[in-house]
Write a structure and sequence with these properties.
Layout (H helix, E strand, L loop, with lengths): L2 H11 L6 H8 L7 E5 L5 H8 L3 E6 L2 H9 L4 E3 L14 E7 L8 H10 L1 E12 L4 H8 L21 H9 L3 E9 L15 H13 L1 H4 L2 E8 L6
Length: about 230
């Protein structure tokens, strides 16, 4: 099955249930009046959240089903397969470009980074969220000779590519993005990923805090935020 058909089928059956705590790690960087592009927006849940903060949001997605669901939320959305097509926007167009847990689903991840940075204005912000394959649990798996594919984890079967904080920062910096913020989300709702005691009330706040301040070790997901440098600053 080709990727577009796969995600059409996926978004036909998936609802709008999202980890809003994680989405807030991205949305909090959005300011009223900014022109924002979300690449591979899914059904537009984060796009609508950013729009509600006063931003002018447009979006793209691979899936025609996702595009229609985003449009139903009032988000101007265009179907684009960024693996094979450029984004349909001119260079240096947007104040902010957002990629939320999307690039790991792409075959040509470097093209996604290239296109996101191309359409971002100098001085604009790039916000990218990715699953963390270097999470302490994943490290333990590899140390003990395992690499299980676990749903809703960094090794989810839907993930084609894998990233660490260090590699994500390097991918940004190689494209003239100066990274100034990295935060992690524990996503403790992913019960198949975490040992049950990690999710108990007495530990939840500690795990969430560790994920936020030490994303490379405890974040199931991490959010990297950076600024596109001007020619003289690179």
């Amino acid at each position: 099955m080709e990727l577009a058909a796969f995600y059409d089928a996926y978004w036909k059956q998936a609802d709008d249930t999202f980890d809003h705590e994680r989405l807030e790690l991205l949305a909090k960087h959005i300011r009223p009046g900014e022109e924002v592009l979300e690449v591979d927006c899914g059904p537009g849940v984060l796009a609508a959240k950013m729009r509600d903060r006063g931003a002018k949001v447009v979006a793209t997605d691979l899936s025609a089903v996702a595009v229609e669901r985003a449009r139903a939320k009032g988000i101007p959305c265009t179907r684009v397969d960024i693996d094979t097509e450029p984004l349909p926007f001119e260079d240096n167009r947007f104040d902010v470009v957002v990629s939320n847990s999307a690039i790991e689903h792409r075959f040509f991840y470097e093209k996604s980074f290239d296109e996101c940075v191309r359409v971002l204005k100098p001085g604009g912000r790039f916000i990218v969220c990715l699953p963390n394959i270097a999470h302490i649990i994943c490290r333990w798996w590899v140390l003990t000779g395992r690499f299980p594919y676990v749903e809703n984890s960094p090794t989810d079967m839907m993930h084609i590519r894998f990233f660490t904080v260090r590699e994500a920062k390097a991918l940004c910096e190689a494209r003239g993005i100066r990274v100034f913020s990295v935060e992690g989300s524990a996503s403790l709702w992913a019960k198949d990923f975490y040992p049950s005691f990690w999710r108990k009330r007495r530990f939840r706040k500690l795990i969430a805090w560790l994920a936020r301040v030490w994303p490379s070790m405890f974040g199931r997901d991490f959010v990297v935020v950076g600024v596109k440098q001007t020619k003289g600053e690179e």
